[in-house]
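#struct-help
A.M.: can someone run this one for me? Single chain, 79 residues.
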Amino acid sequence: MPSFSPEIYHRIVELLISARKSAGLTQADVGRRIGQRQTFVSKIETSERRLDAAEFIEIARAIGADPGAIMREAEKPKL
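D.P.: on it. Structure tokens below:
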């Protein structure tokens, strides 16, 4: 089943990656913080695995990012 707004979803993932890197965290660091392996984070970041809403919130918080701010930024048109 196709996503309603694949652009917004992909933007959310891009913003999570950017926030992770800005925080100086590796995929392994994030995985440890959420009780998962590095490969779990990698699969989300490469779109091999879809991220559900609860996982999104948990990962954003583990990175130190505001989930609401990421969602608002993802909804903005990309210039």
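A.M.: thanks! The CA atoms of residues 26 and 47 lie 17 Å apart.
D.P.: also worth noting: The chain has a mean pLDDT of 94.
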